[in-house]
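hi!! sorry for the late reply, been swamped w classes. u asked for the two structures so here they r. pasted raw, havent cleaned anything up. first the sequence of the first protein and right below it the tokens
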Amino acid sequence: MRRSLPVAVFTALLIAGAAGAAPPPQHAVQKPATSAATGAPAAPKLSPADQKRMQAIQQYQHDLVSVVALRADPDYLLGAAVLAKPFQNETPGLDFDSLSQRAASAPNAGAVAEWARLDLCQTKDDCPNAKAFDYLKQHAAGNAAVWIVALDMAAEKKDAKAERAALDKAAAAQTYDDYYGKTLAGVAKAVAVLPPLADTMQGAHDGQPDTADGVRVLVAVNATDAHLRPNLKPVVELCAKDAVAQSADTRKACLKLAHTLQWGSSPIARAVGLHIQGDLDPGGKAQADRASRNLAWQVQQYSSLLQHGLTNATFASQWLAAARNGGTELSLMLATLRANKVAIDAPAAAGSAGQ
């Protein structure tokens, strides 16, 4: 399992991919020292006014947890759980474990809350959480993301037979969904429950959120920045051209999975799917490279819009409303671009630069 890649870093990976390079191994990319929403350093020297404002935003997030925890709806409960995750020594019942368990146990909860609980582990050896993973294998067997987690586990144990079995199950799955969109929907719903107080915006400068919905966008983006993703590195390795050269069946499974990844839930999955497609299908390489360049462009433009949204109340409101619909990360990105009349295809001049 991996944490998400913030938009700015993911863009850099896509540019490399669009230029013909393989995407770097996910586990080799550390969480960067910049914020996806603001581009600000993770540990800047803050003025007293900035510190006060950031403390007010943290308090707002804490207050949201306390209020939203009173709900019974699984979406809101999951949103409260995600918002609670950064806080230590929470009041019993207001911690991530308790809230995510309530979300998972609520009627019509689905698989998303169990996915969020995969990293509730005491040690590396008992990750992913066995109970949550068993639920997903039983109730979300048609989701390739579940079997890519299994593939990653097999790769760590150097169990080639289990890797191949997991690859076959992933290739046979109908969809790929890492549940980011559904998790974000819960958070976006949760931040609507309380208005941010004036001190969360007072003295904002240099692109910092200066509207109520701008603060909500910042809180939602930051809270979901640590969303769990399957580690796709073993897929890239297992489906490399040299690795499948001696097995037509493996090549076939990899191409089938590549198609599922391309039309899955996340930009990073689409990038990996396009990379595998271009690597294993020379006849489709030009089309895959073109799609990769377009994807790089889309992520860059979406990142810029999100940053702009921190100080643009109209955009922030529009984005939060779209996020609450519970689509996928990829569908939200494309819908946001279209709503703001941004071209989906990269300009011709951007092809060589990956912009």
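now the second protein. again sequence first, tokens right under
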Amino acid sequence: MTGKVEPRIFAVGDIHGCRTKLEQLLTKIDWRPENNEELVFLGDYIDRGPDSYGVVETVLELKSRYRQRVVFLKGNHEQMFINFIMGRDDLPLQANGVSFTMRSYYQNSPFPVSHLDFYQNLSLFYQTESHIFVHAGLRPSVPLDLQTEEDFLWIRDEFLESEFDFGKTVVFGHTPFKQPFICPGRAGLDTGAVFGGPLTCLEVAEGRLIYV
């Protein structure tokens, strides 16, 4: 008897306004939503790069065509941008590249309602039987349902330096590496696309890495 084969899942690291790399990656990954294969974005679609508006347009097109097969997670940069446009900014926004995002929107004004809806309805995590997908990581020893939004979006050293077993492999972005951070129970996919590194995708079950 042949065991059940689960549909493939592809996870994409931090894009940061790099629309060209995103579009090139989407043509390269052989994702087949018609076969129930899923595509998970780990957040940080915007800031620092040249075309944040275009990146959101691209992912919204995916959402409109394949709503049930695409998962959009929130990154800390989306939260900062929401705070900015709602007048609640309390972080060094210019240092975090928000000026690039605003320039992108000024060139495509007025601000689309669909984009605001996208930012406000991003998920904090997604999980399967074997994996947890999140932007930044998880706080060790804390159950998933007790993790805070700050942990999901901002945690770094406490997660990276811990050997805590979450019971599933955690696939995350947020912290840039020169090459994907792959170790037991962890898969970090932010490879600094906006800093000249590649945009990275992981085919989860096979552990296959795809770069642009």
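hope this helps!! also noticed smth abt the second:
The chain has a mean pLDDT of 93.
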